[in-house]
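To: structure subgroup
Subject: Chain for Friday's discussion

All,

I'm putting the inputs and outputs inline so they're searchable in the archive.
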Amino acid sequence: MCGIVGYLGNQEAKSVLIDGLERLEYRGYDSAGIAIFDNKTHKIVLEKEVGKISALKEGVRNLKIKGNLGIGHTRWATHGGVTKTNAHPHFDCKKKIFVVHNGIIENYKELKEKLLKRGHKFVSQTDTEVIAHLLEEFSDLALEDALKRVLKMVVGSYALVLFSKKEPGKIVGVRKESPLLLAIGDQEYFLASDTSAFLPYTKKVIYLDDGDIVKITQDGFSIFDLGGRVQNKKISELGWDLAESQKGGYSHFMLKEIMEQKETLENTMRGRININDGSIKLDEFQSIRDRLAKIKKIRLVACGTAYHACLLGKYFFEDLSGIEAEAEIASEFRYRNPVFNKDTAILVVSQSGETADTLAVVKDAKNKGILTLGVVNVMGSTIAREVRATFYSNVGPEIGVASTKAFTGQVVDLFLIAMFFADLNKKISKTQSKKLQKELINIPQKVKEVLNQKDIIKKTAKKYKNYNHFLYLGRRYSYPLALEGALKIKEISYLHAEGYPAGEMKHGPIAMIDENFPTFVLMTKSSVYDKTFSNIEEIKARKGRVVGVLTKGDRKGFKLLDDAIYIPNAIEFLNPILEASVVQLFAYFVGTLRGFDVDKPRNLAKSVTVE
């Protein structure tokens, strides 16, 4: 999730931009850069560095820049490796137009090919650079008019901030599906990804909407749409401090990351679904397509929450693509001596891409000549570099230690990969594929519907926060979510919780059930709903309290439960994504109501980089 800062005012842009970028560090990044117009020399000073903002700060420390206009950026790599060249800002052939960008330009390859034919010279591997070159094509126009032309050509999401040497007293910005704010100070203006970048200077802000273009000069600002129609926007007064703004106004990063899952799921799907012909577009796997067509078995390997995503992946692969699949815990798998065949692939899943046990599995598999694939969120991470092909989650940095949005992103990623294999192996018709894609496209909005019930879930959590033991149950696709729900409440509430397949309840766990040992059951509409219903009747017969997750409209299940939380209707494949939001919020509220710091649970680290 990149960070953007733009400045035009009466202060030195260099210090304002560096300060703003430092305040955006919490978002996560791998490189950073600034571009400033020097009032004295009329030259553009460009500085980029890989790594921490401190390196960029040191790089510009001794630069004598007399400039009051500039743009800055912290990059979370999506297209192209982590290098100075790929860091923002990017520029055109003549180094007169400079651009920073948050988002993804989906059709950048087609645009780049056309620009190359017209003689443009590209220096980076990024999708962003095409914007600078497209603007160059319309350099005879005012910058905001050139931008209007360019936006009609691009497909994707973006927050863009740019300026031109030709018009040194102007900054232009635009947003679509990526955040961008305009802040108004005393004879100075800021454009930024979020409020933390400018809070030390002003609390007056205008929230830009999708399609809004903003032009800033020393004389003021104006906001208009693609058609040039003026947009009158309300100036709001921020009521929170810097720490709160980094969390988007939420009390914890964990809650923020749970609540932004609609957007993160849209990001992980973006550019990978072709609803017109029913195909799944995975550019990452195209170069090895022939080899993938020969794969008969997949071992999905991970640790912790990512392992639960792998359990769902196992169902996806077997039910959709007909490929034999097994989910393995990396810390155990690395010490086994599994039998591999040439038609086997290892698919590892890791948010950080640095998980030590998972990385050890990758290295061992490579030494044995086994094809290695990865689902990773952090571009440039060790696992991403080690595997043969990487599918990037693109859900943005996850700050909270207990994984939430990364998990649901991984589930969608594995579903898309399973559909890719189903198409590759001709196990699914175009009609079936289109139907599944439509269902998947609707999931982010349904997730939002679940998240809108957070007050109901909090009320339920209040009723159960003083219990010290929980049993989580689910069958088939809901079984991995029972494990995940139990893990979440253990991680951030420090309570004893067991996750079980509901059908195994009578093989031991039922002995624990009494009025002080509640059960959290996932019993959404599915092929095994009636079986799960029977299990709950057995718990109720033993005076056990039950809180359940039901599909909207399920009155039969409601009558059986002590407390119910409803989710929208979805196909069985995708129910777990909606269930995830419920178990995450339930654990979050139990943890916070018990007074714990859920962002930093005791004894846990975000990335387990040692065995």
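Points worth raising on Friday:
The chain has a mean pLDDT of 91.
The CA atoms of residues 334 and 360 lie 7 Å apart.

D.
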